[in-house]
């Protein structure tokens, strides 16, 4: 499907469609069961034209499974240590994890655990989650979310466009989480009567894997359609926006 937003914003990479499905697509990239992989890397690949698929056994890592919406995948994993001070920890089953120096995103395991308890865990109702370029979505396929990689000007435009028909000041949120966990936050927004866009990719451990000027913007599909329908009436057709586009 074509995207007026993509055209108006002159996006460098395709918007990524996130689909919940029980049908595994052919020729899609999938992590091997039990092997680590990065969901954020798969999202980047989808923006460049590839299709990725995940299930509960091939979600890459606990953070990725959680971020995709496969429940609380941190159970039995010392995420509190990883995100804070690191070090070794022994679980009830006798398994020992060594988190090294830790990522130091939180001052202590207790603070990191507070963050983990606050996550809006979701259990998607399907076997698979697919990410693919929006323009490769076929007729009859149901899109759940749309994610875009954008620079500051493009992000400014999306935040503005999100309020075009609503007249609201809180049409976007910027929660902290792993790079892929904007998917989880957007799942939660999709359940709201007035869903908000999710600004993300603040994960310092993943920032080096995308261009320094990029962030992600993820929205429920019905919000995407609302914004898509506003393009031709909005500032995106103005001289002001056209002049702004000339600098990148």
Structure description:
This protein has 248 residues and is an alpha+beta fold. It folds into two domains: 4-63 and 123-245, no CATH class; 73-118, no CATH class. The protein is 30% helix and 16% strand. The strands form two sheets. Strands 2-5-1-6-9-8-7 form a seven-stranded mixed beta sheet. The longest helix is centred in the middle third of the chain and has 11 residues, at 152-162. 38% of the residues are buried. The model has no long low-confidence stretch (mean pLDDT 95).
What attributes does this structure have?
248 residues; alpha+beta; 2 domains; seven-stranded mixed sheet; two-stranded antiparallel sheet; 16% strand
List strands and helices in order, with pairings.
Elements: H1 4-9, E1 16-21, H2 39-47, E2 52-54, H3 62-68, H4 79-82, E3 88-90, E4 96-98, H5 109-118, E5 128-133, E6 145-150, H6 152-162, E7 172-173, H7 182-190, E8 197-200, H8 204-207, E9 215-220, H9 221-228, H10 239-245
Outline:
The protein has helices at 4-9, 39-47, 62-68, 79-82, 109-118, 152-162, 182-190, 204-207, 221-228, 239-245; strands spanning 16-21, 52-54, 88-90, 96-98, 128-133, 145-150, 172-173, 197-200, 215-220.
């Amino acid at each position: 499907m074509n995207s007026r937003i993509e055209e108006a914003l002159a996006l460098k990479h395709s918007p990524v469609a996130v689909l919940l499905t029980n049908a595994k697509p052919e020729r899609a990239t999938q992590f091997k069961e039990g092997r680590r992989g990065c969901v954020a890397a798969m999202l980047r690949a989808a923006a460049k034209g590839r299709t990725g698929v995940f299930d509960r056994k091939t979600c890459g890592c606990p953070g990725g499974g959680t971020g995709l919406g496969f429940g609380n995948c941190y159970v039995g994993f010392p995420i509190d240590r990883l995100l804070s001070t690191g070090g070794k920890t022994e679980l009830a089953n006798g398994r020992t994890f060594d988190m090294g120096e830790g990522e130091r995103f939180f001052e202590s395991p207790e603070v990191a655990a507070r963050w983990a308890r606050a996550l809006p865990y979701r259990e998607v109702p399907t076997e698979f989650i697919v990410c693919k370029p929006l323009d490769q979505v076929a007729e009859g396929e149901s899109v759940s979310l749309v994610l875009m990689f954008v620079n500051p000007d493009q992000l400014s435009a999306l935040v503005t466009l999100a309020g075009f028909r609503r007249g609201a000041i809180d049409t976007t949120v910027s929660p902290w989480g792993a790079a892929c966990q904007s998917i989880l936050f957007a799942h939660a927004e999709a359940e709201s009567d007035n869903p908000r866009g999710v600004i993300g990719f603040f994960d310092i451990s993943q920032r080096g894997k995308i261009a320094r000027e990029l962030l992600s913007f993820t929205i429920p599909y019905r919000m995407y359609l609302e914004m898509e329908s506003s393009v031709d009436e909005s500032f995106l057709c103005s001289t002001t926006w056209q002049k702004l586009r000339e600098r990148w």
